[in-house]
Amino acid sequence: MEIAQYTGDLQDQIISLILNIQRNEFGLDITEDDQPDLKNIQSFYQKNGGNFWVAIADGVVVGTVALLYIGDENFALRKMFVQKEYRGHQNDIAGKLLKRAENWATAKCAKGIYLGTTERFHAAHRFYRKNDYIEVTQNMLPKGFPIMFVDILFFGKML
Question: What are 153's strand-pairing partners?
Fold first, then answer.
């Protein structure tokens, strides 16, 4: 398994992975059209200090994470997804993806990383808490934080 910076040739695999998890695994009523960032990863994430990474196992995308620079030395953590068969401590793909994103943000002298999530991702909530993210209210989010319509829980971590 390797974690690599997005280069443009994996877009279809990324969209398939994320939509499968959102729609089929968790039953969220969200489409590809609701997420135009997935069709423009380079121009949306990989500018102004942000980035997008993929976890690849045997040539297949099995995980993703992105950082979007939202100003004032803060980042939004987005698109953190790991294929069901690759979750858990044995592979620690989620941990490796998160660490890659946090190291990137630290190198950019970030003050904090914030994220929004749906109430259905209970394991993700435990994962973020285990990694020192604390639940914050929506009004505590930095200006410029992009809230998706499915986001009802928010977390933040000061670096």
Answer: 117
